[in-house]
Amino acid sequence: MRIVLVGPPGAGKGTQAAFLAKNLGIPHISTGDLFRANISQGTELGKQAKAYMDAGNLVPDEVTIGMAKDRMEQPDAVNGFLLDGFPRNVSQAEALDEMLKTEGMKLDAVLDLEVPEDEVVKRIAGRRICRNDSAHVFHVTYKQPKSEGVCDVCGGELYQRDDDSEDTVRKRLEVYHSQTEPIIDYYKSQGLVVTISALGKVEEVTGRAMGALPRP
């Protein structure tokens, strides 16, 4: 099964992608992992991406598309994949269609995780990270530490990252609405979009998604 996962920041795409990929027996291909792998391995595409990133510029579509193409051609992706973070705009979606068409393949579904905007802001702006270990994550509403501002695990100070502030989150949402959301309409015209609510417990959302996906 070949699936594209879309949704606003804070929708839980990374978490759901990992669970869904495991349940479906297909690789989870995320843009972040693609960039890290290519840069750490020193591939030509990785060098190009790093040059743009080091200069504070966005990585061009053709570099991202090239990385995605290379990854989808790996043996473990022959029978399917779950794309997370790619495509992120209509031009990338069109390029993906062309790639798949060339190989005689097509997408099976585009899974749209739906979350109200206020909930997105609440989820992200409420996060608090431990200064000693960024893997220790708490939340002012959903996962409160025993002592305010103190990490339960190591006693480190909890803080809010700059990119988790409400103003930054709302700017990220604006970018999502202007750049990525249009791919939902693009795929709706192909009858591929499956929309589910991303509210509730992780396993509830996963169950909803598994039930909504077309059967192979």
UniProtKB/TrEMBL annotation:
Gene that specifies this protein: adk
Pathway(s) annotated for this protein in UniProt: Purine metabolism; AMP biosynthesis via salvage pathway; AMP from ADP: step 1/1
GO molecular function: AMP kinase activity; ATP binding
Domain of life: Bacteria
Class in the EC hierarchy, top level: transferase
Species of provenance: Streptomyces olivochromogenes
Name of the protein: Adenylate kinase
Similarity remark: Belongs to the adenylate kinase family.
Domain Adenylate kinase active site lid span(s) in chain numbering: 127-163
Catalytic activity reported: AMP + ATP = 2 ADP
Main function: Catalyzes the reversible transfer of the terminal phosphate group between ATP and AMP. Plays an important role in cellular energy homeostasis and in adenine nucleotide metabolism.
Entry binding sites for ATP: 10-15, 127, 137-138, 200
Chain positions recorded as AMP binding sites: 31, 36, 57-59, 85-88, 92, 161, 172
Domain writeup: Consists of three domains, a large central CORE domain and two small peripheral domains, NMPbind and LID, which undergo movements during catalysis. The LID domain closes over the site of phosphoryl transfer upon ATP binding. Assembling and dissambling the active center during each catalytic cycle provides an effective means to prevent ATP hydrolysis.
HAMAP family to which the protein is assigned, alphabetical: Adenylate_kinase_Adk
Annotated region (NMP), positions in chain: 30-59
Self-association and partners: Monomer.
Gene Ontology cellular-component terms listed: cytoplasm
Location of the protein in the cell: Cytoplasm
EC numbers, comma separated: 2.7.4.3
Membrane-crossing residue ranges in chain numbering: none
